[in-house]
């Protein structure tokens, strides 16, 4: 029961801060728009640069201090874990945004969280009744009743919280700022790139390949 509650809180914070931003930690929409502008409207160039930016962030030992006190998390799992979750969530949501999907759409948000879970996310989607061999993840999620998708969100949170718990104890009793701590740079960079791979497949482009001007 406690793990489920922890998962719900973790999902809520990732949506609020990982997608919505907090203080110096810009929202997925803002980061997507910035990268798209820098790429002169070229969608795929913007996606590649987004991936590079976030893989470097995930692998950087300076990541946590760059988030600052404004990016405090309710879930005080090891700082490296929550930092990686923030980076991964924003990365997937920003890729979705660049490709023309609305990060405020609950279906898109569920898909983002499934991307953060990687292979576990695909497994959960299929166990919920989405045949990924026959239909895209987004299309399958849109066919689910709202209550079923809400249950899926809870399962995602449980998996994320359990994964974090394996690397340290979850403490949800108070807000504690993310603090600098050791991050497995290589492993976290690989993890972020894996999330990007799932997001790249999940969020097909709704824009033309280049939309300058």
Describe the structure in your own words:
- The protein has 213 residues and is mainly alpha-helical.
- It has one domain.
- Helix content is 64%, strand content 0%.
- The protein has 10 helices and no strands.
- Helix 6 packs parallel to helix 9.
- The longest helix has 20 residues.
Distance between the termini: 52 Å
Question: Rg to the nearest angstrom?
Answer: 16 Å
User: How many domains make up the 3D coordinates?
Assistant: 1
Structural class: mainly alpha
Proportion of helical residues = 55-70%
Instruction: Tell me which oligomeric state these chains represent.
Output: single chain
Q: What is the strand content?
A: under 5%
- Strand elements, count: 0
Largest sheet: none
Count helical runs.
10
- What pattern of helices and strands is seen along the backbone? HHHHHHHHHH
Average predicted confidence as pLDDT: 80
- Give the overall shape: globular
- Unreliable stretches (pLDDT < 50, length at least 5) are 64-81, 168-183
In short:
The protein is mainly α and 213 residues long.
List keywords for this structure.
213 residues; mainly alpha; 64% helix
Write the layout of secondary structure elements.
Layout: H1 2-19, H2 28-38, H3 43-59, H4 63-67, H5 79-98, H6 106-117, H7 119-127, H8 137-143, H9 146-165, H10 185-202
Helix pairs in contact: 1-5, 1-9, 2-3, 2-5, 3-5, 3-10, 5-6, 5-10, 6-7, 6-8, 6-9, 6-10, 7-9
